[in-house]
Design a protein that fits this description.
Blueprint (H helix, E strand, L loop, with lengths): L1 E6 L3 H12 L4 E4 L11 E4 L2 E4 L5 E2 L8 H6 L7 E3 L6 E5 L2 E5 L3 H11 L4 H11 L4 H5 L3 H8 L3 H7 L15 H13 L1 E4 L4 H13 L3 E3 L4 E7 L2 E7 L4 E9 L3 H7 L8 H9 L5 E9 L10 E5 L9 E6 L11 E8 L17 H18 L10 E7 L1 H8 L16 H4 L10 E3 L8 H14 L4
Parallel strand pairs: 1-2, 1-13, 2-10, 7-15, 13-19
Antiparallel strand pairs: 3-4, 5-9, 6-9, 7-8, 11-12, 12-13, 14-17, 14-18, 15-16, 16-17
The chain binds flavin-adenine dinucleotide.
The site of flavin-adenine dinucleotide has 39 residues, from α1, β14, α13 and α15.
């Protein structure tokens, strides 16, 4: 008998496991995949490791949003590398490039050089980045509010230019997501020197050293309710595990579908969660470069086809820190939003068995990404040794992310009470966590895991 069973070993599940085991609770994490980590897992091709859902993190320095909790989770000891203080993100719109500098004051002064007439707008923006009125931000539409305080459309596009780390949707995105998805990065931005698995391994090492357990290849098929409480988790391999509490890190609609019969989960609640929309997915081209050809760049480059970042047609080019200390990059990722409908022809297929036409589709898309990246890295195609790609189908099939969504349930400023979810369900010992509840990304998922664990321990 466990104190807490956690379904899913994504960041949310692992942070909960750490915080609960620290309080002396006996924790079991059940993961359906062969490898733990969810979006944070890394995969090997040849001698190289590639990440799936980690490029950079914001706010790790002392006094900043992630510092204390990462210290508690012992993640600060990992080899973090700070991105360039004078330009951690570069935004290329048209043929001009703009830079984001670290720290609110420097951020403002750097952009004021490009937009001298818009100093007041920049000041309002910096004030907004420090806003703490969460309820107001949840119910305020980001695009509407930002267009109001930043009348210059080019400046608005530039300030929104690093937002591939969220779904930049005009009619729904809440200011809360926009601010939390930008502010920590302005305070300080970091890359891991190594792969995302380092975070996963460290979190697993911590909670298992306190008596916790992780079992992979253990897909939970049913959570059995008896007398108004979940009593056991039934896995695909036939194993059954009992516990006092259960936490679901999988997508909320997946979690609720596991409770087949319940006196307490109201139909209206189930229907509400099932009907929520999900954010778009992502196409990723991961490039292995020939050695000694492309200098390492210690920033992210964001490129836009048109002048409007909010059209959702941006590209992010991110460089992996060379682990051998070389001045040259070996790995570059190019990301661009993709709706799963673009993969409709392969909806009923499985990983590695989707057919040649799918491979062709991915190759074409990768070539398109490379052509865009060449605006910033001329002749990039000549330096490529290997290309690995993923689409929303990849996330759908590996992480069970509905619609292959990159960031979980779509939040809507017009309906915060419907789209922002509580960790509580109708069943007193079943809780939710993960990116779909409140906020995605390492920052959002870690904060959410803290809220979830608070429901069980004080
Ligand atoms: C392409 C991409 C790039 C990103 N880049 C960044 C970045 O640079 N910085 C940043 O901060 N964030 C980034 N993110 C977001 C970040 O990776 C995610 O928000 C976060 O990792 C999500 O964690 P999670 O625990 O909510 O869910 P997940 O990682 O999705 O974990 C859920 C887990 O549950 C498991 N599961 C599902 N169903 C079951 C079941 N029935 N039984 C057992 N297990 C089950 C899944 O296999 C999975 O392991 C990125 C995301 C993507 C997709």
């Amino acid at each position: 008998m466990y104190d807490v069973i956690i379904i899913g070993s994504g960041l949310g599940g692992l942070v909960c496991a750490n915080l609960l085991s620290k309080k002396g609770l006996k924790v079991l994490v059940l993961e359906r995949q062969h490898q733990p980590g969810g979006c944070l897992q890394s995969y090997r091709r040849g001698t190289m490791m590639y990440d799936t859902g980690l490029h950079y993190v914001g706010g790790l320095a002392e006094g900043q949003p992630l510092h204390d909790i990462f210290k508690e989770l012992e993640l600060l000891s990992l080899p973090w590398q700070k991105l360039d203080a004078n330009g951690f993100d570069h935004i290329m719109i048209g043929d001009r490039e703009y830079r984001f500098a670290e720290g609110y004051e420097n951020f403002l002064e750097m952009l004021a050089k490009d937009f001298p007439e818009d100093r007041d707008s920049l000041q309002r923006y910096i004030q907004l980045m420090q806003c703490t009125d969460e309820v107001w931000m949840q119910q305020t539409n980001a695009y509407g509010y930002l267009s109001n305080i930043i009348p210059n459309p080019l400046l608005l596009s530039v300030l929104s230019g690093a937002c591939l780390k969220m779904e930049l949707k005009r009619d729904t995105l809440p200011l809360f997501t926009f601010v939390h998805g930008n502010a920590p990065f302005i305070q300080s931005s970091w890359r891991l020197k190594g792969d995302g698995n380092m975070i996963v391994r460290k979190l697993i090492e911590n909670f298992t050293s306190r008596g916790g357990e992780l079992i992979c290849d253990a897909e939970v098929l049913e959570l059995v309710e008896e007398y108004g409480l979940i009593k056991k988790a039934v896995c695909k391999n036939g194993r059954i595990y009992e516990s006092r509490y259960f936490i679901g890190d999988a997508h909320p609609s997946v979690m609720l579908s596991l409770v087949k019969e319940s006196l307490l989960l109201k139909k209206v609640y189930r229907r509400r969660i099932e009907n929520l929309e999900n954010t778009n997915g992502m196409f990723t081209a991961q490039l292995l470069l020939k050695p000694g050809e492309v200098p390492y760049f210690n920033f992210n480059e964001f490129l836009y086809d048109g002048l409007e970042a909010w059209d959702g047609r941006g590209y992010m080019v991110s460089c992996r820190v060379p682990e051998d200390g070389s001045a040259f990059a070996r790995q570059i990722d190019i990301l661009t939003p993709m709706n799963i409908s673009e993969c409709a022809a392969w909806t009923d297929t499985y990983p590695m068995r989707r057919g040649d036409d799918y491979l062709q589709f991915k190759t074409q898309k990768a070539q398109q990404c490379i052509a865009v990246a060449e605006r910033f890295l001329p002749k990039l195609h000549e330096y490529i040794q290997e290309i690995h790609t993923s689409t929303p189908l990849t996330y759908r099939d590996y992480n069970l992310s509905p619609d292959g969504s990159a960031y979980g349930i779509r939040k809507d400023a017009a309906a915060p009470l419907l789209t922002v979810l509580s960790p509580r369900t109708g069943i007193p010992n079943l809780f939710l966590t993960g990116q779909s509840l409140m906020l995605h990304g390492l920052h959002g998922v870690t904060m959410t895991a803290m809220y979830t664990t608070k429901e069980i321990i004080d």
